[in-house]
Amino acid sequence: MLIAAMVLFICLPAVAKEHPAAAQSLEEYLLSYDDDARREMKANSLFLIDHLMDDEVVLVDIRFAEEQQVWNFNFALHIPLNELPLRLDELPKDKLIITACPHKDRAILAMAYLRTQGYHVRYLEDGLLSLAEKLRGDDARMLLQFLPPERFQHESKRDSD
């Protein structure tokens, strides 16, 4: 969380110059931050799986491209954190977005940034490693049965170029 605070401290002046309303939105969010907001910013793997099956969320894997090439979730949208500001047009505004990385440090940064851009977003608090552990055997088979096939074709615009 310290990393997220430091990045926000460094980046907010630049965001404020380019997006004054977005920076004010983050300021308002921080000023009203309480226990409910702390709980609302997180999603665990079981929440993600349940809401994926209901087609209510989009998982955004924000790991670096080389990490995604080694192992990935083919039902996730793959946008590395360092490309996120340039690829906002790939994200839906009508669904909850859950940002994820192996643990949660980069996911928290992505969540904070996307909130300044007007997205409804949470971060995967138990990380992609925990999600992988939960999606084994019968649980993976069950998810496959519920997700439409097009969710497994989730190539980003950059991947298909």
Automatic annotation (TrEMBL):
InterPro entries on file: GlpE_sulfurtransferase, Rhodanese-like_dom, Rhodanese-like_dom_sf
Residues annotated as signal peptide: 1-16
Keyword match Lipid biosynthesis: no
Keyword Metal-binding: no
Keyword list, A-Z: Signal
Lineage: superkingdom: Bacteria
Domain Rhodanese: 53-140
PANTHER family named in the record: FAD-DEPENDENT OXIDOREDUCTASE, PYRIDINE NUCLEOTIDE-DISULPHIDE OXIDOREDUCTASE
Name used for this protein in its record: Rhodanese-like domain-containing protein
